[in-house]
């Protein structure tokens, strides 16, 4: 049995450079459009500001589709959950 360096395993599994939070927020904003504002990303969680409770409710019902769309544009499974905040 041969062993491989962990750095080589990581390079194979994640061939491109890691995405920065700012890049993720920019892509997320393009998906969200004008209805909401992508605020921040940290460890799989995207925080989104919405103008009112109605928009928050509507977006919560679509959150899985939004996550899939953002991850598709990013080319990897990055977003795991979205939290909506009024503001």
Query: Which stretches are poorly predicted, pLDDT < 50 over at least 5 residues?
Result: none
Structural class: alpha+beta
Rounded Rg: 16 Å
Looking at the structure, what is the overall shape? elongated
What fraction of residues sit in β-strands?
15-25%
Helix/strand order: HHEEHHE
Biggest sheet, open or closed, and with what strands and sense? 3 strands, mixed
| Amino-to-carboxy terminus distance | 56 Å
Number of helical stretches of at least 4 residues? 4
Give me some keywords for this one.
single chain; 87 residues; three-stranded mixed β-sheet; 3 strands
In short:
With 87 residues, the chain is an alpha+beta fold. The protein contains four helices and three strands. The mean pLDDT is 88.
């Amino acid at each position: 049995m041969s062993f491989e360096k962990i750095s080589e395993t990581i390079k194979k599994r994640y061939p491109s450079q890691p995405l920065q939070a700012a890049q993720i927020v920019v892509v997320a904003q393009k998906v969200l459009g004008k209805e909401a504002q992508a605020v921040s990303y940290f460890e799989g969680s995207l925080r989104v500001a919405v103008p009112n409770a109605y928009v928050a409710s509507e977006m919560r019902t679509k959150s899985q589709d939004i996550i899939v769309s953002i991850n598709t544009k990013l080319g990897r499974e990055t977003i795991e959950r979205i939290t909506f905040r009024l503001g």
